[in-house]
Every structure is written in structure tokens, then in C-alpha cells.
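User: quick one, sequence for these C-alpha cells?
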């Protein structure tokens, strides 16, 4: 198996179990992969490209570190960098936030907030905003919610606090 930005974390660690410590060593955020529940759920859907955003590790660094440790050739491909933060969208109005979830404790316990986020956002009206607070950028969750008809915006609120806003289109 060739390690690429689209490689799923679960497939990577299944094929190359010796890479677990290499991956975890790249960012303290990856310590969550030691949790069997999160590893099973996140590992199944998260790609290395998404994981690079979560851990704040340049995609090229992540891929090439893993490739080298797996005995694969280093790639010089110009990998797309994900711009995790940008200018706030016009729809981001604090008065339209109707739902909030601080999922940091939930994640620390090894629970995944996806089902709760999906349940809460499902009942929201057009223009309403859901605010999710996490200690990292939860890219797989963001993509799942976005695929159900929501725009999103990510804001770094501190060294270990990210606020992701979802607005029903």
C-alpha cells in the first residue's frame, strides 16, 4: 500500500502497525489515536490529509515522515495545503447561534460527538448556527456535517481551543 494524502488512518495503522509511534510523535493531538474507540471511528474515516490539519502538521511532512518510516520513497509532489482559517463569512452572526456543544470533555473520555452534532444540526432551520468547541480541528466531523447541507467556518480561539461554526444553507 502506498502512503498518500488520501490514505485512511485506520488502513495505514492496520497495514503498518509499526507507524503508530511515528504518527503519534508528529503531534500531541495524535495521542487520541491511542484511545480504541476514537481510533476505530476516526481511523475508519479520517484521511492523512485531514489528520494533517487536525495535528497542525504540514501535509508534506506528515506523508514523507510516514513514507520514510515505512521504507517507501519520499515524494516531492507539491501537496495542497489546507487553509484551516480564513476571513469570517458574512453568515457568522453571534446572535444566530442557536446550538452550542463543548466536546472537549467528551473527546477526552473517548466519546465521539458526531452523532450528537448530527442530531442537533438536523433540526436546525436555514440561517441558524451551531457552534462546536474542540481541542483540535475535527476535519472528518466537519466534512460529514457539511455534506448534510451546512457551510462551516473554523476559528482558533486559543492554543487548544477551536470553534467550528455550522450554518444551514
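Assistant:
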Amino acid at each position: 500500500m502506498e502512503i498518500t494524502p488520501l490514505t485512511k488512518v485506520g488502513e495505514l495503522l492496520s497495514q503498518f502497525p509499526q507507524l503508530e509511534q511515528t504518527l503519534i510523535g508528529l503531534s500531541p493531538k495524535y495521542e487520541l489515536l491511542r484511545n480504541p474507540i476514537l481510533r476505530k471511528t476516526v481511523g475508519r474515516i479520517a484521511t492523512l490529509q485531514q489528520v494533517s490539519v487536525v495535528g497542525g502538521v504540514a501535509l508534506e511532512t506528515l506523508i514523507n515522515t510516514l513514507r520514510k518510516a515505512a521504507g517507501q520513497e519520499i515524494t516531492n509532489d507539491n501537496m495542497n495545503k489546507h487553509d484551516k482559517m480564513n476571513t469570517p463569512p458574512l453568515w457568522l452572526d453571534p446572535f444566530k447561534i442557536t446550538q452550542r456543544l463543548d466536546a472537549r470533555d467528551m473527546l477526552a473520555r473517548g466519546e465521539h460527538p458526531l452523532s450528537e452534532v448530527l442530531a442537533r444540526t438536523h433540526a436546525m432551520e436555514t440561517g441558524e448556527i451551531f457552534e462546536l468547541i474542540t481541542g483540535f480541528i475535527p476535519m472528518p466531523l466537519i466534512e460529514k456535517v457539511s455534506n448534510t447541507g451546512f457551510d462551516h467556518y473554523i476559528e482558533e480561539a486559543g492554543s487548544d481551543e477551536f470553534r467550528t461554526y455550522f450554518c444551514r444553507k
